[in-house]
Amino acid sequence: MSAALDRRALELLPRGARLGAHDAAVFALREKRDAAGTSEPDFEPLRDHARALKAHALDHLGLLLERFEARASAAGAVVHWAEDAPALNRIVHELLDARGARRVVKSKSMLTEECGLNPYLESRGIEVIDTDLGERIVQLGHEPPSHIIMPAIHRTREDIGELFARELDVPAGETDPARLTEAARRHLRAHFLGADAAITGVNFAVAESGTVVVVTNEGNADLGMSLPKLHIACLGIEKVIPGLGDLAVLLRLLARSATGQPLSVYTSLVTGPRPGAELHVVLVDNGRTRLLADDAHRRALGCIRCGACLNTCPVYRRAGGHAYDFAIPGPIGAVLAPALGGSAERRALPLASTLCGSCSAVCPVRIDLHEQLVAWRATDLPRGRAERVGARLAAAVLARPVLYGVAGRVARGLWPALSRRWPGNPASPWLASRELPAHPGASFRTRWRAKTSAERGHERSGVGS
Amino acid sequence: MPERTAAPVDVALFVPCYVDQLAPQVGLASAAVLERLGCKVTFDPRQTCCGQPFVTTGAHAEAVRLARAHAAVFAGAEAVVCPSASCVATVRRRYADLLGEREAAPLAARTFELGEFIANVLGVSDVGAAFPHRVALLESCHGLRELGLGRASEQLGGGAAGGGITERLLRGVAGLELAPIARRDECCGFGGAFSVGFPELSARIGRDKLRALAESGAEFVTGTDASCLLHLESLRAREGFGPRAIHLAEILASGTGA
Fold it and tell me: Is A31 inside a domain boundary?
């Protein structure tokens, strides 16, 4: 009865201290975002502006992509087009293979997570080292990121100390974040120096200049792009924006919405390869044009992957990202999953929301996320026959006041039985963690009828006396 | 003393199905407050459900059917008043999708959440109630973010957060002491069908809310949505701690010597 997300949350983020720590760590990001947005007087106007510019960019995406390709090529980059995940993986592998590249350093890219690039390359004998600290942690732990900007936020520092003691040169019992980070830094430095190629994600692609923009806090993407001779940048086609002025708007929103920083520590604009090196840019569709053609849902493509909707989501914070079983968890993941995710289980993710609406209220580009969730529910939910018949029956009863009254009386009679736990009790999901409310006695309409007839009685007797 | 409005206003009471069946006292209290403020209150027993559960579970055809019936019942009403923010939000925010803008807009403009109607339409901030208790306010997500009864903590710009309509009405209640709670506008985890489809996650969110409420030292928790309150009450019954739930209408109707 209960959805897969609910079951997996119990398994992957069990009740207890770890759950509380996850909720607190993620909510702290929401609060930092609130503070940053409050201290930036233009924050709300910037959101309006970002919404409009993203809508404009999506309306003219074909034109912008062609312009980006032309300008990036003129600057010396090689632009590739990938229709889907297998195409991206193939293109990247061929580029590496043709140059004999065996060792790759990679900076954070949700797109390559979505497309499963790492396992594809690894199964072909290529070593891929994620260089973002959080990404490296989950990679060492053989698990996917659980958050789109904080990949290892489900891990405590004790977990990480244990992992590093096993995998890196760290004494057992180390939990000091500074020393753990230093160990990761030493470990990664060797990989940077020995790498044959760098793969990065892309935050924005600027059409007017053919520039790819990469935003990080650790400088790992920059080091990767600066050392090996081959840089492959992978991005979804929705990341293209018209000009550098638009970039300025989005950059002012991105870090503030994500972590509460005014700007990330590193914002690198890459236009063409550096002398003697190669820059390849792979533009990936993987379901995005399908979403673009869907007027009801295309706005979701405006997402700049800041993670603010995850941080504010009461469900995400209690479920953890892994429970979603989709590269992008939280509200934006639940909105994108039906279009990009494939499986029936992922198409059911729009149900994983209380519809509290906080996601829509924080989105820097004002995507109407919870409205999108409602809209998906009406169109694309995988639904069993029993569920469909049940809805029709319930509506048929509710549409007839007399039947509705009878059903209410029947439910009242059954109330004591429904309140007890027994196998097959239809109230079981409710009773798993709660009691049924106390027996309510007579319905409002019954009491109202009694009240009004008594008043009429008073009026009549009032006339007589 | 309660303020009274100049001319009597005809109010058609919109009692959501779950209030009718599970929290009848909320409907009666709503009528009592409105009558005390000089309204002429009627209840049309042809009403059942606004269709919200069908909207949120994606049963579009069924939602349209119920929305149409609901709109027909209230077609002639001057003002439709409802003690449930989420049902009002359904009429105001979802009916356009179900019935078309032309049919939905007039009904949406005449449908009000109870506290909103008292404060904004009747212009009353002191209903003459007395409730000498420490009370925490559970802001309804739909009241806050879809009806704009207040401003959620994540909604930036335009002055300090909080201090919405519901809170103002509570401040007008004699003897009532408001208890601030941590993460004041975090969802309670109910979410209608969500609470049944995702019982563990729903209860996790609800238990955290219950804890925040208990830590506030409140004797009662109140709000504009009986559904959220029933959820918390059901959790409290299982967990054995936390303040008792009482609907805003019951507080506003209390202590009047009636």
Answer: no
